[in-house]
Amino acid sequence: MSAVTLFLLLLVFTLTIYTKPSNSAIDSFVYGGCSQVKFNPSSPYENNLNSLLASLVNSASFTTYNNFTIQSPSSKDNTLYGLFQCRGDVGGGDCSRCVARAVTQLGTLCLDSTGGVLQLDGCLVKYENATFLGVEDKTVVLKKCGRSIGYDSDALTRRDALLGYLAAGDGSYRPYKNGGSGDVYGYAQCLGDLSGSECQDCLSEAIQRLKTDCGPTAAGDMYLAKCYVRFSEGGSHSHDGNDKNNNDDEIEKTLAILIGLIVAVALLIVFLSCLRKLCEKGKGK
Q1: Domains of the chain by range and CATH?
Q2: Dist CA 204 CA 199 (whole Å)
């Protein structure tokens, strides 16, 4: 094998390993649930459900939130209500792909169920045959608490400052808010069918439950039916563009160093190969 061939193989191998990671985190499963009531396959209800889910996927190509109602002229029992929503910092193609993936997973998770909900890290899809659009619902659907930090007054002050910011109304309705206080980062979001006052009420409830149920912890997730709040020390929940860009920069720096090392090794191999040939010629004389 020639030195040049060896170099090319090493370069291809390195590029294969250190290709930039995709934004697959948005597809991570958070929670899901299905109605216990089933519908008959090939029924009008199934046709309406397929139409609803197709509308959600198509709409996600143009917006990050939408809801639909599929009415059946023959029977109210076949009427369907559904919505999707992407996380506030997820847009464009990522939102569309997340919703499509959620719909696909719902087809398996909630096979023949009249209602279902699936929350991925980057989006939510929900449908039912009873209207839930515009209805407040503060039912706890998921709670996660991080490690205890004891009663570290500085850490608790930073956490409370962040949660206070996420809960506060600022005169304009924003269903998604994110921010940080020191090394504590968090974000909160309401479903788009809530009004501004309903959203603030839901987030206040979620934050109070976080404080009560989790106590002094380094991280916490509280998902209610119509809103959620997440925070963590050290930014492990961070999804803002700066963090992603910083990670990409580090990957590029690492890749540049590795390529430099490979070039150096390849040049050394070429030099040694030439030196060996010169030695062999010298012996031949």
Answers
A1: 23-128 (3.30.430.20), 140-233 (3.30.430.20)
A2: 9
